[in-house]
Amino acid sequence: MKYTEEISNKLNKLLIKNYDAEKGYLNAIDHVDDERLQMFFKRRVSERSEFAKELRTEILRYGEIPEDSGAFKGVLHRNWASLKTLLTSNNEEAILNEAIRGEEAGLEEYNEILKDRNLPPTIDSLLLKHKSAIQASINTEKSYKELV
């Protein structure tokens, strides 16, 4: 496998995770009443859309084709989160729990790819920026959870 293809495959994994997170946050907006949470989720949608754009740009830069939609596993997770939300008495807490779980899974994916010490510096820097924002999101979600 060519080096450029290997890097693009790794970036495509992250691209799919970001598509899934964006769709998950869009779904969450519709299931919370708290305006602060809605605004927080809208910012996450925008952030994840920007992450996806940046990853697509890098994949194209390496001459490969970016993925164009989320993973089947992500669809299943969002559907399960929707069902779980309907069955729980505290929707906002359940949604925050699912958001935290999803973000932590995304963070693991970023950490796994960042272990590759052969990444070009521009990609390494981009992924570290994304990872930092995801960690900040997790921290904020945990603090919102305590308020709910």
Automatic annotation (TrEMBL):
<dbReference type="InterPro" id="IPR009078">
    <property type="entry name" value="Ferritin-like_SF"/>
</dbReference>
<dbReference type="InterPro" id="IPR019052">
    <property type="entry name" value="DUF2383"/>
</dbReference>
<dbReference type="Pfam" id="PF09537">
    <property type="entry name" value="DUF2383"/>
</dbReference>
<dbReference type="InterPro" id="IPR012347">
    <property type="entry name" value="Ferritin-like"/>
</dbReference>
<feature type="domain" description="DUF2383">
    <location>
        <begin position="7"/>
        <end position="116"/>
    </location>
</feature>
<dbReference type="InterPro" id="IPR016920">
    <property type="entry name" value="UCP029477"/>
</dbReference>
<protein>
    <submittedName>
        <fullName>PA2169 family four-helix-bundle protein</fullName>
    </submittedName>
</protein>
<dbReference type="InterPro" id="IPR011971">
    <property type="entry name" value="CHP02284"/>
</dbReference>
